[in-house]
Design goal:
- By secondary structure, this protein is α/β, with parallel strands linked by helices.
- Helices cover 53% and strands 7% of the residues.
- The chain has helices spanning 9-22, 34-43, 69-79, 123-126, 135-146, 148-162, 172-193, 198-216, 224-236, 265-277, 288-297, 325-332, 348-356, 368-372, 375-396, 403-406, 417-425, 430-449, 472-495, 500-507, 515-525, 537-541, 552-562, 568-592, 600-610, 622-638, 642-654, 660-671; strands spanning 2-4, 29-31, 51-55, 85-90, 113-117, 257-261, 281-285, 303-309, 340-345, 364-367.
- The strands form two sheets. Strands 2-1-3-4-5 form a five-stranded parallel β-sheet, with helices on both faces. A five-stranded parallel β-sheet has the order 7-6-8-9-10, sandwiched between helices.
- The chain is flat and about 115 Å long.
- The N and C termini lie far apart (96 Å).
- The relative contact order is 0.05.
Length: 672
């Protein structure tokens, strides 16, 4: 068993005692310095090494413990032929690695390793800087330690750096000897990684060495690195293909579409294949008229990227089409669609002039041949289109506008909530996560409405998650604390008719009720705003609720699951009904504001009325409105202002109250 640790006496003592407790002295080897390590990798065959334990925070040569130099040592051991499992021991807290704990038990093939967290027992590690290893950094470590192809690429990278000879090597003979030694050493490492490819490696080594030695005969700056790059693909192909992951964000089809406009059917077919390969949903058009018709009929704004060939011909007559690509883009700018504009052309001069025009400054332009004549070009182009589409699609989504969504709240969240929502929106498991969020919210609401709230867990809507949106744990918390919690509150509030206090107590039955907590629930985390931020008529007709603060997923869920009416006419009527009553109550407030109640009970009644602003009536509940009107009339009688109050009601009725039910309520009040 191999142990690799720091030079410090405290560290050596810990790993020595660890070795003695695990294996006999004859079966252990302790490495604690650069000198010992180099001797190990140059003079040791690792076939009999069963396990390797490495201190992740190695500090040889003054390395900062936060650099995790132990990972670099492990890579060198892998390249030198170590094939057993590796255990990394770290004094860093688990939170320093922003990935789920399950990721630390990794890969059975070709090698595996685990990260073991030790209690902070050494003084050095009590003063570690606050550094977090991100998911991408950790995955890079995993790839470099366990993927054979990554190990091969590491060796080739070292070889390219190694052939940059120092200035003191002058003679041709010295050059040849140095280069031969460097190439032979690196190919020996490749042989340890790929022992089954011995014959192929010998053949490649001979060919590469022949070219390098020929280059060494020339005067001037030798291009050894370019020679190595020529052989890199051939060597890399000898390594097995890395195992494909189950799903990545790129394998999920885009939730938006590209509209590609080109006059040539062959080019449209090629681009369609490229879009399919990179999971981009698309529509095709052969003319400007067809493209504009498709945009006009896209009332749901599913098309977010418009890609136009600049010059368009009629393929039957060979005559220029009435609308060219730049005409299509200029007309599309005045349409209600949210779009990113992209131009394709084979005419570089026309492309430059187009980009220089003020009205076309936002166009992202590509040279057509760069895309069509190279798989790499198509890949780069598709990735750019994905970025553009995601940007516009996210920009067009409903997002709450409260402080927590717009700016970072360092006390509770690592980033603003809008960024966590963006990570959720484009995650590979978006559909599955949405289904689980909806089911959890529906079960919770059903239990409360059926009077079985004891079955529900308390929702931690105030829970903190300070890790970045890319972290799976933080994203899971956002989905549970924010998205699920919002839907539960919305359903209870809009469907169940619960007051704010009732929603609060249903979701947090064990929490002591305070006004501050209520404000936090409805104004910060859940941001429930329905009456104040209505979408306009055009957006309603398109099914596009940008003017509202509710998320699209919430709107869709409320409509499909609970049949909540989100038509503008009904919402407008609801708002006007509430405002009609609110205006009357304001009139009564004016009448009562000069009153000076003598008894404490009268003062309490008056203050309660003056502070009531109907905010609990986000949507119309006619029974509550009628209750408010009757209470107001009783108060007017009590303070002897009913006659004047009824005069105000008559004036409002003359101005035509639009809601007939409210009108009938007021007429009934006057008759009584």
């Amino acid at each position: 068993m191999l142990f690799v640790c720091s030079e410090r006496e405290s560290s050596r003592g810990f790993y020595k005692s660890l070795a003695e407790g695990l294996v006999p002295a004859s079966a252990q080897r302790l490495i604690s310095s650069h000198q010992d390590f180099h001797s190990l990798i140059h003079n040791t065959a690792f076939s009999e090494t069963s396990h390797c334990i490495i201190e992740a925070e190695l500090d040889w040569s003054g390395k900062n413990p936060g650099d995790f130099f132990g990972f670099d040592v492990a890579k060198s051991l892998r390249r030198s032929g170590l094939a057993c499992g590796i255990f990394f021991c770290t004094y860093w807290p688990e939170e320093a690695f922003s990935v789920q704990k399950a990721r630390f038990s990794l890969l059975q093939a070709p090698n595996w390793h685990q990260l073991i967290f030790l209690p902070t027992g050494l003084e050095t590690f009590r003063k570690l800087p606050e550094v977090v290893m991100t998911q991408n950094q950790w995955e890079d470590v995993v790839d470099s330690l366990t993927d054979v192809r990554s190990l091969v690429q590491e060796v080739l990278h070292d070889l390219k750096n190694g052939v940059i000879l120092p200035a003191e090597v002058i003679s041709a003979e010295d050059k040849k000897c140095s280069l031969s030694r460097i190439v032979a050493a690196k190919f020996q490492q490749l042989l340890l990684i790929l022992p089954e490819k011995e014959k192929e490696l010998e053949k490649v080594q001979a060919a590469l060495m022949s070219k390098i030695l020929a280059e060494a005969e020339t005067e001037g700056v030798a291009e050894y690195q370019e020679i190595i790059e020529q052989f890199t693909p051939e060597i890399t192909q000898l390594a097995p293909e890395p195992e494909e992951k189950e799903e990545t964000p790129l394998t999920r089809s885009t939730p938006w579409k590209v509209l590609f406009v080109d006059d040539e059917p062959q080019i449209r077919a090629v681009m369609a294949e490229g879009f399919k390969q990179y999971s981009i949903n698309y529509e095709l058009a052969g003319s400007g008229e067809q493209a504009l018709d498709m945009l006009a009929s896209d009332t749901r704004n599913t098309i977010t990227v418009l890609i136009c060939d600049i010059r368009l011909k009629d393929m039957k007559t060979g005559v220029w089409q009435k609308l060219q690509g730049y005409d299509i883009i200029d007309q599309a700018r005045h349409m209600p669609n949210y779009l990113a504009f992209t131009a394709l052309t084979s005419a570089r001069k026309r492309l430059k002039r187009l980009q220089q025009q003020q009205q076309s400054s936002s166009i992202v332009a590509f040279y057509k041949k760069d895309i069509l004549e190279s798989p790499v070009g198509m890949g780069v182009f598709s990735q750019k289109i994905r970025e553009l589409g995601n940007m516009v699609f996210f920009k067009s989504r409903n997002k709450p506008v409260s402080t927590s969504w717009r700016i970072g709240n360092r006390q509770r969240y690592g980033e603003r909530l809008g960024l966590y929502y963006k990570a959720h929106l484009f995650s590979s498991d978006y559909d599955e996560a949405e289904q689980e969020i909806n089911l959890s919210a529906e079960r919770f609401v059903a239990n409360i409405l059926e009077g079985t709230s004891k079955l529900n867990p308390e929702i931690s809507f105030t829970g903190t998650f300070k890790k970045p949106p890319a972290d799976p744990e933080a994203l899971d918390k956002f989905r549970q604390y924010i998205l699920t919690g919002r839907r539960i509150a919305l359903a209870l509030y809009l469907v169940g008719g619960y007051s704010k206090e009732e929603v609060f107590k249903s979701m947090l039955p064990k929490t002591e009720f305070t006004g501050q907590m209520l404000k936090l629930l409805f104004n910060t985390t859940f941001c429930l705003s329905f009456q104040k931020d209505l979408p306009d008529k055009r957006d309603i007709d398109r099914g596009y609720y940008l003017g509202a603060r509710l998320l699209q997923e919430e709107i869709q869920w409320l409509v499909e699951r609970y049949r909540v009416n989100l038509e503008l006419s009904t919402l407008q009527q609801n708002r006007e009904a509430i405002e009609s009553v609110a205006y009357l109550l304001d009139d009564l407030r004016d009448l009562l504001s000069e009153k000076q109640p003598k008894s404490a009970e009268d003062r309490k009644k008056l203050n309660a009325f003056l502070n009531d602003d109907l905010r609990d009536l986000t949507i119309v509940n006619y029974s509550k409105l009628e209750e408010k009107i009757k209470e107001a009339d009783k108060l007017a009688i009590h303070f002897d202002v009913q006659k004047k109050f009824h005069e105000y009601i008559k004036l409002d009725l003359e101005d035509e109250i639009p809601d007939p039910r409210i009108k009938n309520m007021l007429l009934g009040l006057l008759k009584n």
